[in-house]
Amino acid sequence: MIKENDRVLLIGEKREFFVRAGEGDLSTDKGIIKLADLTGLDTGDIVKTHLGVSFKIRIPRPVDFFSYAKRTGAPMLPKDIGTVIAYTGMNKKDRVLDAGTGSGVAAIFFGSVAGFVDTYEIREEFSKICAKNIADAGLENVRVNAGDFLSVESDEKYDVIHLDMQIEKEHVKHAYGLLKTGGYLATYTPFLEQTFNVMDAAEDLFSEVVCHELIGRELSRTKRGTRPSTRVCHTGYITICRK
């Protein structure tokens, strides 16, 4: 059930609105919706504008925050985040550390899967945006920290560490020390030179080091026929290292 200040998606014909339930109005070309009318409703319910045009309510999922949350830069794509979750076996028992969080999109996905997530962003202004996005997602098991990953100290080890940042060899070594035996380090790197930094540093520390190039293509279907989309299919590299 939707409460005041909850984020809500309103789905109309060929348009969507990412709004917050509570005070104020949403003005559209199909009429005005009073946002207070959203409280007490649930996903699948219908709300109408003052002109009688219907919008269906949808409770946002992590992929919706990828599309609509305030950004500090280009976040990882859902397919890339999914690769990290799949190859580390991330689950509700896990304690996860996410560094280089940016706007917090990956942390929102991880928080929806893992038991607890510590996310670190060295830029304080980005950390504040991340904290707002995490709050909008309603994730009480994600803790946002403004700070340098290399300064992280913890008596309790992590099951998974994810790094999406400019990674040097000292970051890999520090991650190794913070991981449980059997735990995973996953790194996202857009360039081969950064990827080689990770692989070279991890080779002497971790029992398994595997790099995946991330490629995906959407299909475009028209009356003329079906073919792969012309969008760029390569996004980056995920390196998975097991302690």
From TrEMBL:
Key words, A-Z: Methyltransferase, Transferase
Record InterPro entries: Methyltranfer_dom, SAM-dependent_MTases_sf, tRNA_MeTrfase_Gcd14
GO molecular function terms attached to this record: tRNA (adenine(58)-N1)-methyltransferase activity
Organism: Methanochimaera problematica
Record's keyword annotation contains Transmembrane helix: no
Pfam families, alphabetized: Methyltransf_31
Protein name: Methyltransferase domain-containing protein
Origin: domain of life: Archaea
Gene Ontology cellular component terms for the protein in this record: tRNA (m1A) methyltransferase complex
Limits of the Methyltransferase domain: 91-214
Transmembrane stretches, start-end: none
Any GO BP annotation: tRNA methylation
